[in-house]
Every structure is written in structure tokens, then in C-alpha cells.
Inverse folding.
């Protein structure tokens, strides 16, 4: 059972930090694909900066040349806040026996217990935490308990079970943040080399972070 990676985010904009992590996981964990799921209406944020359709387009352009990278518009086909639990339910319905791994960065993982119906996520998928080398997952509190009950250190377990495990993996952490990209574009600078050129072109041509 080759796991499908599901990588959600606002991607406002997508950048090489996201892409490099996803690529390392694709190879290291031997995933069948990494499915990028841009959030249409992220519940944790007051709003996004670039409109949803433009964020979607930037992801589409960023992943176009990479075999094994795909984009999923399921959050654009629903109304209301884009909850991860609903996205995983949709993907699970499509691929009922597949192994599915929800990919999150450490910052997202640390906020997991605030997510809508978070305790149902492991019924639907594994959680794969991508973190910088040397970091540890929390061993106390709700996340500590989650790790004690669901944690595995063996990547093969992700290929054996369809979901239900928490696995962490060190990836090269490029110190790039969407927030900083928006700020530098807002200050009139060029974001080139922080993201694929096609994404940079969309930002420059649309002026989506200029005002
Ligand atoms: P912002 O600066 O707007 O908060 P962000 O990049 O942190 O942007 P998202 O686009 O929602 O926010 O992030 C999607 C996922 O990518 C999250 O799981 C996050 O942890 C992860 N991520 C964010 N930045 C990086 C990076 N530089 N390297 C690897 N993963 C990242």
C-alpha cells in the first residue's frame, strides 16, 4: 500500500520551503504522490491576501513539472470554512483502501488540537510531521498522548496501514515564509529565487501582494 501524501496549506504564496519538504517526503517515504490541497477558506485566518483562485493557480504552476506532485481542488468544491477533516473524508471516500498521510509542518502540528474535529483525523489518515533536523515532537499534553498512542518510527508502517499513525521526518528546512514574501513584495522588492519563476510571474503580473 503506497501512501498518498496530502499537503494542505494557504500557499499565499507557495514557495521553495513547501516544495522542497514535499519533494523530500515523496522520495524518502516512497509516497505514490503528494497532493497539494490549497485551502479555499482557511478557518484559522482572518482572510488571505491573494484571492483563492490565484493561490490555486500559483500551486498549479509551481508543481506542473514535477512527476508525483498533484493538486486537489476539493476545498474549492465546498462552501464554508475549509476543514481538513472534511478534505480527508472526501479523499478517503475516493480511495477507500489507500494509505493516506496528512503532511504538516511542525508549526501546524503544534496547533493540531485546535483544529475542527481534530480527534477524527487519525481515523481517516496518518499524520506525517515534517520538521527541521534535531527537533522532537512534544511528549507531554494532548500531543504527547497522541504520540504515545499512535506514534511510529518505522516508515514501513505507513505502507502497511491505511491510517492512524503519527510519523515524523526531518527535512531540509528552508527559512522561507509566505509572510516574509508578502512583506518584501509589498516593499517593492522582487521575490525571485524564493519560488519557481512561474509563481513569481503571477505575483508580479497580478500585483496581488503589492497593496
Ligand atoms: P504564512 O507565512 O502565511 O503563515 P506558511 O507557509 O506558514 O505561511 P501555509 O502556506 O498554510 O503557511 O503552510 C502550509 C504548510 O507548509 C504548513 O504545514 C506549514 O507548516 C508548512 N511550511 C510553511 N513554511 C515552510 C517551510 N519553509 N518549509 C517547510 N514547510 C513549511
Amino acid at each position: 500500500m503506497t501512501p498518498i501524501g496530502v499537503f494542505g496549506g494557504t500557499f499565499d504564496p507557495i514557495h521553495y520551503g513547501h516544495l522542497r519538504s514535499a519533494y523530500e517526503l515523496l522520495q524518502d517515504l516512497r509516497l505514490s504522490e503528494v497532493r497539494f490541497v490549497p485551502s479555499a477558506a482557511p478557518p484559522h485566518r482572518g482572510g488571505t491576501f491573494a484571492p483563492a483562485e490565484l493561490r490555486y493557480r500559483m500551486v498549479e504552476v509551481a508543481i506542473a513539472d514535477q512527476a508525483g506532485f498533484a493538486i486537489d481542488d476539493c476545498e474549492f468544491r465546498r462552501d464554508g470554512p475549509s476543514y481538513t477533516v472534511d478534505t480527508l473524508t472526501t479523499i478517503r471516500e475516493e480511495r477507500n483502501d489507500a494509505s493516506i498521510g496528512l503532511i504538516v509542518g511542525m508549526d501546524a502540528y503544534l496547533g493540531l488540537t485546535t483544529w475542527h474535529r481534530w480527534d477524527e483525523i487519525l481515523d481517516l489518515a496518518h499524520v506525517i510531521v515534517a520538521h527541521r533536523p534535531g527537533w522532537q515532537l512534544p511528549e507531554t499534553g494532548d500531543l504527547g498522548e497522541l504520540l504515545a498512542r499512535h506514534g511510529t518510527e518505522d516508515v514501513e508502517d505507513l505502507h502497511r496501514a491505511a491510517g492512524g499513525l503519527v510519523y515524523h521526518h526531518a527535512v531540509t528546512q528552508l527559512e522561507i515564509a509566505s509572510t516574509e514574501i508578502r512583506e518584501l513584495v509589498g516593499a517593492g522588492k522582487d521575490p525571485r529565487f524564493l519560488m519557481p519563476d512561474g509563481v513569481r510571474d503571477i505575483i508580479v503580473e497580478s500585483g496581488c501582494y503589492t497593496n
Notes: The first strand starts at residue 4 and ends at 9. The chain has one domain: 4-205.
